[in-house]
UniProtKB/TrEMBL annotation:
This is Lipid A biosynthesis acyltransferase. GO terms for cellular component: plasma membrane. It comes from the Bacteria. The keyword Transit peptide does not apply. PANTHER family: LIPID A BIOSYNTHESIS LAUROYL ACYLTRANSFERASE, PHOSPHATIDYLINOSITOL MANNOSIDE ACYLTRANSFERASE. InterPro entries: LipA_acyltrans (IPR004960). It comes from Aequorivita ciconiae.
Amino acid sequence: MQKLLYLLVYPFLWLLSKLPMQILYIKSDVLFFLMYHVFGYRRKVVNENLALVFPEKTEKERNEIAKEFFKHLCDIIVETLKAFTISEKEIRNRFVVTNAEILDNYYQNNRSILLMAGHYGNWEWSGILNKLIPHQAHAVFKTLANQYFNSLVKKTREHFGATLVTNKKIVSVLYRKWKKGEKTLTYILSDQTPKMGHFKYHDTFLGVDVPMFTGTEELAKKLDFTVVYLKVEKSKRGYYKATLIPMTDNPKEYPDYQITRMFFDLLENQIREKPEFYLWSHKRWKHRDKV
């Protein structure tokens, strides 16, 4: 059944990805109308999240953020489809890394890197980083239930040469390469919600006390990797600017969980400045009453 669904859907997705971006954004506008005005996809979740973290804002202000978020979410959906077939030339033009040259210094100094990022802007197009760095590029992902679509997502995200590794295997993979002296850069979405009973630390995220994912910090300390924050900003529709912000070259010198706190401070600053570009449809605060 999984294979049949994949065979039916994949050709349609591939054909969509071949369309020019201006056509895909028209489809994004249609999708927004259906998702927001007709079906109300996750509007309750989004509204609850915004009311929780922005109690100082009026209902009108929060509704405007929600509306702009759904427009952005629909753009992310078509941009992810485009990632199936987008050319390197086009994505370099649309996703610009402003200071990739700083990674050369880390490489020359024999430093591997953990790149911490949040679900902000367009995290799917960050794969172009692999073309800009001397390190071996990796990205962490969670396996999908449908093995065929899992292979499709993996193939798409590896479009520009990065290697995708599951969250269950990333520690052993990086440890082996570290032992061999291979220099790596690993992209980790670090604002995800840990499973109940599997978290070691909780703190405030946008003013709400929740469990924190600390795996990136723990990995950095274990292997003595440099930690960098990837700040992604939306310049205009279809165009993003990414800036690499060094966090620490000496993670072992920091008290436990301070690096995690630093990451969330950086992410919060972005969200408060332009909240519409964060992933509000995710139930990030669902465990707030269980810490």
